[in-house]
Amino acid sequence: MGLPLVLDLLAVFMCLSVRRVSSSPPNFILLFADDLGFGDLGCYGHPTSLTPNLDKLAAKGLRFTDFYVTSPVCSPSRASILTGRYQTRSGIYPGVLYPGSRGGLPLNETTIAEVLKPLGYNTAIMGKWHLGVGLNGTYLPTRQGFDSYLGIPYSHDMGPCRNLTCFPPDVKCFGFCDRGVVTVPLMHNEVIIQQPVDFLNLETAYSNFATTFIRDSAQKGQPFFLYYPSHHTHYPQFAGPRAAGKSKRGPFGDALLELDSTVGHIVHTLKDTGVLNNTLIFFTADNGPELMRMSRGGNAGLMKCGKGTTYEGGMREPAIAYWHDRITPGVTHELASSLDILPTFAMLAGTRPPKAALDGFDMSSILFQGGPSQREAMFYYPTDPSEKYGVFAVRLGKYKAHFYTRGATHSGTTPDHDCHMTAFLKEHDPPLLFDLEADPSENYSLSPVEHPEVEWVLQRMQRLRDDFQASMVFGESQVGRGSDPALQPCCTPSCTPKPDCCRC
């Protein structure tokens, strides 16, 4: 019996074991923070962050120490978590999508929502989509498997914000954000209901949306999937009256507290409707902290650099899995990724993942057995992946090898010059090798000359990299299709002069 068949049978057995506890399919809540560092949560060691609800999920659930996303910036990371595939396959590169982008997540990609919907799941998303709008809403969530949507279709800094209120009573947003484009819209399904968005009441709207969605699903006895890609803690930070001024971390801490409060509200609703015991809650974030914002940009903890880089601070994220009485509380050091969420949800729902080339693995063994990860390696792509340079870094076991390094504007202002945009692309031959268990900050490279015992590790990582790159088929760049100002969402499309007239 081959190893792949053994793993498949083991996964099916674990799925059946979990499903036997309940006669109905499980519900799924996927929480996805924005620009959150490895060291930003209280349960990950930050001394002044107020995150009581997330901390409680971590204490009563499973906290990951070695969890990775696929990109150090927004759109590519979001494509991967929803499809279980590296962003290079779906074409969500280089960088991110913009309000007028012609491209978006291709409709032939299969999202988690599209996996679950045929099984009778009610599916909804609230928050930041950032996978394209397109002509007549071609790429919106409602075209990608979600029954309902409330949110901003891209980053909330992608519109003028200087005169918008981010904190009560009338504290203006910090900075200018993007200018020369429409103000940021709030959409319900495919209709703009507010432009510009009211930041002070946005999180309350999300909480109410989640409550209605969960209650309606529970009353119908319908399994559900709620995806909450939060705007917090991306720049410019904002918070309503219940969180503003309540933390010791200033605007960043208040925004984080507001996110945490929404998490608490969701958990309360799950309890109140009697479905908590049959719901898996999974939390992580899209990429590391935007260190160029200094204290407003988050904290990577022990990890090196942050957003925009392939160092640990850019792609290693906090992650928490909670399922009452199903997941044993604890900490796992197993290697896992946002790529693994789709196959895990699919298996637990009683179906197989899409037949497309997946890069994710079922995490059931980690979640329910305290067992090993099926994931052998993690591959680090930069913000602008290319076939010319390929994978910048590889993690295998406790080791990480950098074949290329480069700093980023997003990670400027730190004392470490490796993080800055002036740290230009550099090839390393032999690769820089780090033992991440002994040196998570990537400070002390292991030389094969001084440490001959690691020579085999480098050879193995090189083979893994070569094999992976040989199997990678780059999809057409959706970002590379360019932008058209006429595609920017406007609640009064026939108004003039644009973009200033787009208000409602």
Give a topology summary.
Elements: H1 3-21, E1 27-33, H2 52-60, E2 62-68, H3 74-83, H4 87-90, H5 112-116, E3 122-128, E4 148-152, E5 165-167, E6 171-172, E7 186-188, E8 191-194, H6 199-220, E9 224-229, H7 250-272, E10 279-285, H8 312-315, E11 316-322, E12 330-332, E13 336-337, H9 341-349, H10 364-369, E14 377-380, E15 393-396, E16 399-405, E17 426-435, H11 455-471
Parallel strand pairs: 1-9, 1-10, 2-12, 2-13, 3-4, 3-9
Antiparallel strand pairs: 2-11, 4-7, 5-6, 7-8, 10-11, 14-15, 15-16, 16-17
Which features does this protein show?
504 residues, alpha/beta, 4-stranded antiparallel sheet, 11 helices, 17 strands, disordered N terminus
Protein described:
This protein has 504 residues and is of the alpha/beta class. The protein has helices at 3-21, 52-60, 74-83, 87-90, 112-116, 199-220, 250-272, 312-315, 341-349, 364-369, 455-471; strands spanning 27-33, 62-68, 122-128, 148-152, 165-167, 171-172, 186-188, 191-194, 224-229, 279-285, 316-322, 330-332, 336-337, 377-380, 393-396, 399-405, 426-435. The strands form 3 sheets. Strands 1, 2, 3, 4, 7, 8, 9, 10, 11, 12 and 13 form an 11-stranded mixed beta sheet that branches. α6 (199-220) runs parallel beside α7.
